[in-house]
Specification:
Layout lengths: L9 H16 L2 H8 L14 H14 L3 E4 L4 E5 L5 E4 L5 E4 L7 H9 L6 E5 L5 H4 L2 H6 L3 E5 H8 L2 E3 L4 E3 L10 E3 L2 E6 L2 E7 L9 E5 L4 E3 L20 H14 L5 E3 L8 H23 L4 H6 L7 H4 L6 H10 L3
Parallel strand pairs: 4-5, 5-6, 6-9, 13-14
Antiparallel strand pairs: 1-2, 2-3, 3-4, 7-8, 10-11, 11-12, 12-13
The structure holds zinc ion.
Length: 333
């Protein structure tokens, strides 16, 4: 990594560091189709405009098919360009968790149509991010009543800036907004299952919930969990690494050894895999915190390679080690 190439302020450095992986994190599809940077901050290209990134992500999503994995007789994992989705089928109609990109809607609709003949009735958002809610309006048009945490509706109703990506988002259209919100916990009885939904204190954002299908023993973790690679933490939306660790602990307390756990991004997982992720986060946070509290700048902390022990396993995904270190640093007070 060549730190000399960064002449700007620390904030500029952080922005570039985060942007180096930014397309890949929030806008996974964009990363695969032109915003993927090969390694770390040193190869960061000049930031694209917000609209170019969004256009690129939507374009990629339009071309990405949905892969469907059966979890139980009534639950299915849908994986495409956006965040992981879960569909529940049954006599009450279909329930969907997260809506991916707007341009993925034809693929999602096709995938849902193959599951059974009942109409789509409910959509639950795990948090406000674009790659989980951009398809809301299309799913609402298809018949879905939308439920989310109160903060998800609030953030979707107003312009948002994700500084790590130089990303500015206009308010979502009215048809995309959650129609029912909650603040703490909510329970849904649907298709002979009990869905426990609960707010997680600021972690990936300040809008995160989990959704637990009690009878099926399937847990959607939202973006509290990136399975197999360093997670994005959105400081602009109130995200904090210590919240991520506490959130992972909440999920671990719910799950047993048989629970199928769906991460926001990455492959289907289980309690053992979530535990490894939680321990990685805690170790990295402790390493970065120790260096930051001793007065080191973000450049100095990155140079000290506080993630080194974890990079062979966790550093090959969306976020390169240097960028993840910068993000963790930025969320520590
Ligand atoms: Zn997210």
């Amino acid at each position: 990594m060549n730190l000399d190439s960064f002449q700007g302020s620390r904030r500029n450095f952080l922005s570039k560091a985060s942007y180096a992986v930014g397309g890949a994190v929030l806008l996974g599809a964009a990363a695969k189709k032109g915003f993927a940077f090969q390694s770390g901050v040193a190869k960061a290209a000049a930031p694209a405009t917000s609209s170019a990134m969004l256009d690129q992500a939507r374009l990629a999503a339009a071309k990405t098919p949905i892969q469907t994995t059966k979890l139980t007789d009534t639950l299915f994992l849908l994986q495409g360009a956006g965040g992981n989705q879960v569909a529940q089928i049954g006599p009450d109609g279909k329930l969907l968790i997260d809506s991916s990109f707007s341009t993925a809607a034809p693929h999602v609709t096709e995938a849902l149509g193959k599951l059974d003949s009942h109409p789509l009735k409910l959509l639950v958002n795990t948090h406000w991010h674009f790659d989980h809610t951009d398809g809301n309006a299309a799913m609402h048009d298809a018949g879905a009543f939308i439920i989310a945490h109160k903060n998800t509706r609030t953030r979707m109703s107003m312009p948002q800036d994700i500084l790590a990506y130089h990303l500015h988002l206009e308010p979502s259209p009215a048809g995309a907004l959650p129609q029912q919100t909650f603040e703490g916990n909510e329970t849904l009885y649907f298709n002979h299952d009990e869905l426990s939904m609960a707010y997680i204190d600021p972690a990936h954002t300040d809008t995160d919930i989990y959704v637990f299908f009690k009878n099926a023993n399937v847990l959607h973790a939202g973006d509290i969990w990136f399975n197999g690679f360093y997670p994005f933490i959105d400081a602009s939306s109130g995200g904090r690494v210590h919240g991520m660790i506490a959130g992972a602990d909440r999920l671990l307390a719910i799950a047993d050894d048989q629970t199928k756990i769906v991460p926001g991004h990455g492959p289907l997982g289980d309690k053992a895999a979530l535990h490894k992720y939680r321990d990685m986060l805690a170790s990295v946070a402790a390493n970065v915190e120790k260096l930051k509290s001793s007065g080191q700048t973000v450049e100095e902390v990155i140079a000290a390679k506080p993630t080194a022990a974890f990079d062979p396993v966790w550093g090959k995904g969306f976020l390169q080690p240097d960028a993840f270190t910068a993000i963790v640093y930025s969320t520590l007070s």
